[in-house]
Amino acid sequence: MFIEHRNVCRACRLKQCFVAGMNPRAVQSEREQKGSPDQMQDVEEDDYKDLSSPDTCSVEIQTDVDDQKPVDHTVPLPSMETEMARFSEQLVEMHRAVCSYVDPIVKKEESEIKMEEGSSATKVVFMDAFFNPGLMSPRTPLRITGERIATVQDVMDEWRRNFVLFSDWLRALPEFLQLPIEDQIVLAKNRYGPFHWWLCANWTVQAGCEGVCYSNGAYFPRQIEAQCIPDVKGSSSRMFDSLSVPIKELQLDETEVVLMLAVILFSDEVTELADLSQAGKDHVRIVGNRFVRMLHHHVNSKDYGEVMEEDEQNVSESQAAVRIAKMMILLSATTNLVYLTSDNIQLMEVLHVVPSEYLCHEVQLIHDSYETP
């Protein structure tokens, strides 16, 4: 059985355990190392050192050595909780900045437009597209409104624009840039699908539309009769039911959405990452664990309402544990969506932009539907 399928099955069993009355605080991540309390303390201290290192901090702004002020040893060092909160805030700021990128509008001559139309069928190598996303699409403003049903052109424009957002997001993340170029390409090739599904699911909740919300004001409907392209695998309905509905019930805040996106991108439980170098695998695992810890810290720090004083800590911990468990189930649902759609007709043959063996997970298209009768 593939790991993706196994994780989905385990997620279903976890739901049943909660319904049967299992203590949520008994949930333990597989990534947690077993050992003595002293060993666990050493691990936490090492993790804290990793978080505090300027080489590994998320969205950290570096200054020249000459501009640094002498260290005041009388001032206490910030706690691990404070540092995690700060890194989470920086990650959210980076996400906002990337989503706000808009290319200036350049008026093109008629001859330039004809040249572009004539070369629209030219394929682009994945590496060129990823490191030069302007080859794919201009950075248009994100319109998360879901105000109209998507056309075929809307579907293709959304795919390209979301790929540009994906490229900008990863290349703005210091943890990604610390990987060798070869490992960056391997990770990027295998993470666009989860990235796209997670954002579309959250955009669907934000817009309140009945389908997959796009970034261009359109949405791909769940109703088959309204679809511009047949969704033979039912991936749009699956996304709505397994991601958008639970996300709406959880009422994820912006920090949780962004941290989950980072966790998804640096998840090390997908077999496709076998092509990473050993150093790359270790880096992805360490960074992924760090983002998971940041997510745990953020959820544990949330206010869950008024409770009796003597039970406040226990109730808060239980609610936080249940919330984190449900969010991890969403990670499995995202992985399952990617695996579900990976064996369909490739979108690239229609878009003529990226070789089909590289990116294939995000939209389900039937090639025959593009042939003129």
TrEMBL record:
Q: Which Pfam families match?
A: Hormone_recep
State the Gene Ontology terms under molecular function: zinc ion binding
Positions of the region Disordered? Answer: 26-55
Alphabetically list the UniProt keywords. Nucleus, Receptor, Transcription, Transcription regulation
Single GO BP term: triglyceride metabolic process
- InterPro entries in the record: C.elegans_NHRs, NHR-like_dom_sf, Nucl_hrmn_rcpt_lig-bd, Nuclear_hrmn_rcpt, Znf_NHR/GATA
Please state every residue range assigned to the domain named NR LBD.
Answer: 83-367
Q: What is this protein called?
A: NR LBD domain-containing protein
